[in-house]
Request: fold
Amino acid sequence: MNQRHVTKFLAYVVLPAVVLGVLPYLLPPRRKHLRHTHELASADDRFVHVDGFNMRYQTKGERGTPIILIHGFASSSVTWYRNHDELARAHRVYAPDLKGWGLTDKPSDGDYSMLAQAHHLRSFMRALDIEDALLVGHSMGGAIAVHMAVEYPEVVRGIVLIDPAGARPFPYLWLVSRVMDVPPIRRWAKWCADLVVTHEPLMSMGMPGAYYHPDSLTDEMRRALLAPYRTHGFVDALIAFTRDVRYTRLHERATHVNCPTLILWGEHDAVLPASDGEYFREHIRDSRLVIIPEAAHLPHEEKPDEVNRLIRGFAARLDDDA
Reply:
């Protein structure tokens, strides 16, 4: 390699690589106002210490089969605002925020895999003396409910999966997860995420696409979902979640679910297609699949009456079989 080639190599390869590797450590942190989770807490919020962090939850109802509502990715317990009260008429209902989301703590060094979240939910049940429960999981929460049913069958009476994740692999997520192992890239990702969370239009840009009727997303709901994004630790937790996303696939774990299972799916889900419901129906022995018309990825918000009715009926079946 002659001197000219060496010069070009240094100019077009080595120098940009050095700049990209060093620059994120030189960029000043973005100035933004972050709030503490307790500043956003309401009178209905409760906190319990589990596995070294504080988990926020709300609970309503006094009797009947305990129900635990498990939210999905980029969400929190507020997603159940059209279900919690109605289900609490006949059940003791718990709606926690998963680690890293909502008003629950967001440790930067935590394990954010779905299996780890399942372990934390088991600790949540122990802390509140919940002997067993019906689990209702949406999207990512559905994958966590499956892990719970496999890992802790003695405390899971049944599971309701609402548009659950885990039926198909997403190779690009595996790649992104691996890339997050590279410190400079992880630093760039944090800087970019800090930029995004300071701009509400960027944060909420994709939200309407999860609904069949975009106007189902009210301004109040948007604000409730976005507020925790501006709390201390959120970006670090998000980066950690991205790092651990390669451990979220269910593989064939669904075949090891031995409890009754109800699968609900929005017919027009553009995030996880309704055809994925067949995967869970075929792999979980005691399961039933119901497609919800005129609903997309959030049928429990768009069609709450129908979803609540189906959950109540499923819970009644569990009580009859007990």
About this structure: Confidence is low (pLDDT under 50) at residues 8-15. The longest strand covers residues 53-60. The two ends are 78 Å apart (CA to CA).
